[in-house]
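Hey, can you fold this one?
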Amino acid sequence: MQRAKQKKLILLSIGIYTPIALFTSNAKASSFGAEIFCTMRDGGNDHESSWDAAYSYIKKQKGGLFKVSPKNAAAQITETVIREREKFKYCVEYLDNLHPNRKLIRDLKKEEERKEKEAKDKEIKMKRLEKELEETSEELSEDTFERYSY
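Sure. Predicted structure:
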């Protein structure tokens, strides 16, 4: 009986502390990730190198079975900068680079799909024309032409 109570108590404590530990490590990772990104940007580094450093740190700190996606990491950095506005007030101007213009990306994707469709249609038309040409040449080769027959 005593042993069953101890097991329940152990499982209960693990169940309570595990989510807290996971959440706090994630919060610390995103906070320090934001600090890395903002410090590097403020130091004159370009967006790509600052983003790569911050994202790799957040990804490494997360651990576990699932990794942090780039969109999620960008959202975490943005959240941290907004939440701790006084600490990161110099960094607000760099946040737009974390979230590229989604409309532009959508438009580029539509344009690419349109070009692919046009290329596919053109290929189908070419195959049809080649087939018609082949059929016509077969018909012509079967007929004999006399020079003066009308």
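Helices lie at 2-42, 47-62, 70-83, 102-142. Let me know if you want another pass with a different chain boundary.
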